[in-house]
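Customer ticket, subject: "Can you confirm the structure for DUF4430 domain-containing protein?"

Message body: Hello, I'm evaluating your service for our small team and ran a test protein. I'd like someone to confirm that this is what the system normally returns, since I don't have a reference to compare against.
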Amino acid sequence: MMTPALLSAALLLLLLPGAPAEDSNQTPINIHVTNSVTSAPKQTYSTYVVYRGILLGAMWRLQDSNVGFSFTYTQDPNYGPFLVSVNGVSGCSADRTYWELLVKRTNETIRPDVGIGCYIPSANETIVLNFNKY
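Agent reply: Thanks for trying us out. I re-ran your input and got the following:
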């Protein structure tokens, strides 16, 4: 027999809205992988984020879809996810190379002040993961 408190808790759980469905409110984005260090050809991928979803989620979705996109990152305790490699190409402090995050909008290209773990893409943005030197 359920106690009134347990019954109330069970009823509350039934009334709470769940997480949004994975396929509802999809925001389409493109991801371009470019290389400013070598003349490697640009690669373009199409994916999506869910409403208010982060770029990292779209990148995981793309990697899981087996379209030839892969990436690795490390988790910095102060700054969050730090992109290490894309499609097998890794940044290297000895070579002074890194993966740069850029966002192409209609009339401009910006460098967001947050990384892949916090950036929330807008519809039809082009995310540029550019291999570069510092």
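A couple of notes from the result: The radius of gyration is 19 Å. The chain has one domain: 23-133. Feel free to reply with more questions.
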